[in-house]
Design goal:
Rossmann fold; alpha/beta; 6-stranded parallel sheet; globular; 6-stranded mixed sheet
Length: 352
C-alpha cells in the first residue's frame, strides 16, 4: 500500500510528518517530506533504513531483503520503512522523500533504479546508499555500495546434486530474464551439473517478467513434458509444477533460489540456493554507526555467509551420501580448492 503525501494544507503535512517521525515504520508507507537532522555519532538504534522495491514484497528477491530487514529491526533496533511496486519513473520522488525525512541508509532494491541512485547520491554525499544490483563496469559515487545476489557458489553446489539425481539427463530452468545476474547463477548451476554428469543438458525458459507465478508454472510444466526430471526455479511459481507432477505420480526434483522453498515444495524440493541478507544488513549498520561507510562493489559468497545451500530436511535425511558429497565440495570452495566460474551471458548451446 502506498500513501500519498499531498495534502490540502500545510497543517496536514506537518501532522503527517510528526506522526511518521514517532512511528517505527514496519509497513509499506511512503514518508512525508520533512527535514531530518544528522546524528554526529549514530548508534544502531538510531539508524533509519528505507528499502524501495519495484515488485511485490512476495517476490523472492524482495522477500530475502524484507526478512533480513525485519530481523535487523528486531535484533539490532534499527528503524525500517519500505515501499513496494515503485516504478523506475517514480523512484526518484520516493528517494528524495526518504532523504527529507532523515533516513540514514536508502536501499533501492532493483537494477532499474541504479541510474537514479547515482544521480541523487551525488547530491547527498552524507546519505548512504546500497544499490540492489547494477552494472559493475561503471563508476558509482563514494556513498553508493552496490550489491547483488552473488550466490553462484551455492548454485554450483545445487548443480552437482542435480547432475547426480537426473535420470533423463535433461534439466529444466525457469528464469525471469537472460540478464547478467540471473544467468550468472544458471551458468554456475549448469557447470556444477556438468562437473559430475557430462551427459546432462540444460534447457532454459525465460518468462520475461520478474514476477509472474502463472507464467513460471506453465514454463516448468512445459519443461517437464519435454522430459526434464529436474527443475531449477529462478522464478516464483515453478515449484507448483513440480508439486503437481509429484501428486500425479511422477518424480521431478526441484531447486529453488534466493529463499528457502521447503514449505512451498515439501515433496519435490532438494535444496534452495539461499541469499541470506542478514549478515549484509548487519554490515551496513556497522559501517554507518562506525562512520566507515565505503562505496564499491560487494561480491560476498559462501565464506561470508550470505550464499547458502539449504537442504530440504526430508530429502537430506533420505540421501545422506549425496549430501555429504556436495558438502565436501562446499568446503573445497571455502578453502579455495574449487573455483566456481562466473559466466554472465546466456548461450543455450554452451550446455548442450
Amino acid at each position: 500500500m502506498r500513501i500519498s503525501i499531498l495534502g490540502s494544507t500545510v497543517i496536514v503535512l506537518i501532522i503527517i510528518a510528526a506522526v511518521l517521525s514517532l512511528y517505527i515504520l514496519g509497513g509499506a508507507l511512503s514518508p512525508s517530506p520533512q527535514k531530518g537532522s544528522s546524528v554526529a555519532s549514530p548508534t544502531a538504534r538510531s539508524i533509519k533504513i528505507a528499502v524501495i522495491y519495484v515488485t511485490p514484497i512476495d517476490e523472492p528477491w524482495n522477500q530475502a531483503m524484507h526478512e533480513a530487514m525485519v530481523w535487523a529491526r528486531e535484533n539490532l533496533g534499527i528503524t525500517y520503512s519500505y515501499v513496494e511496486r515503485i516504478s523506475e519513473a517514480d523512484v526518484e520522488r520516493i528517494i528524495r522523500q526518504y532523504i527529507q525525512t532523515g533516513y540514514d541508509i536508502i536501499i533501492p532494491h532493483s537494477w532499474g533504479y541504479h541510474q537514479t541512485t547515482i544521480k541523487v547520491a551525488k547530491e547527498y554525499p552524507s546519505v548512504s546508499f546500497a544499490q540492489g544490483s547494477g552494472p559493475t563496469d561503471i563508476e558509482y559515487p563514494r556513498n553508493v555500495l552496490v550489491y547483488d545476489y552473488w550466490i553462484q557458489e551455492a548454485a554450483y553446489l545445487a548443480g552437482i546434486a542435480a547432475g547426480k539425481l537426473t535420470k533423463s539427463n535433461l534439466i529444466g530452468v525457469v528464469a525471469a530474464y537472460p540478464v547478467p545476474d540471473v544467468v550468472r547463477l544458471i551458468n554456475a548451476f549448469a557447470a556444477g551439473a556438468k562437473s559430475v554428469n557430462p551427459n546432462v543438458k540444460i534447457r532454459a525458459i525465460f518468462i520475461e517478467s520478474w514476477f509472474d507465478p502463472v507464467k513460471a508454472k506453465e514454463a516448468a510444466k512445459a519443461l517437464i513434458e519435454s522430459g526434464a526430471d529436474v527443475i531449477y526455479g529462478d522464478s516464483y511459481g515453478a515449484e507448483q509444477a513440480t508439486e503437481e507432477a509429484y501428486r500425479s505420480g511422477r518424480t521431478v526434483y526441484f531447486f529453488g533460489t534466493i529463499i528457502d522453498y521447503s514449505k512451498l515444495a515439501p515433496n519435490t524440493l532438494v535444496a534452495s540456493v539461499v541469499w541470506d541478507l542478514r549478515p549484509f544488513i548487519k554490515y551496513l549498520v556497522e559501517l554507518k554507526t562506525n562512520g566507515t561507510w565505503v562505496g564499491g562493489i560487494l561480491n560476498w559468497g559462501i565464506k561470508e555467509g550470505w550464499a547458502k545451500l539449504v537442504w530440504n530436511p526430508s530429502f537430506a535425511q533420505r540421501n545422506q551420501a549425496l549430501v555429504a558429497d556436495v558438502e565436501r565440495v562446499k568446503q573445497d570452495i571455502i578453502e579455495g580448492r574449487v573455483s566456481v566460474p562466473i559466466i554472465e551471458d546466456w548461450d543455450p548451446k554452451r550446455w548442450g
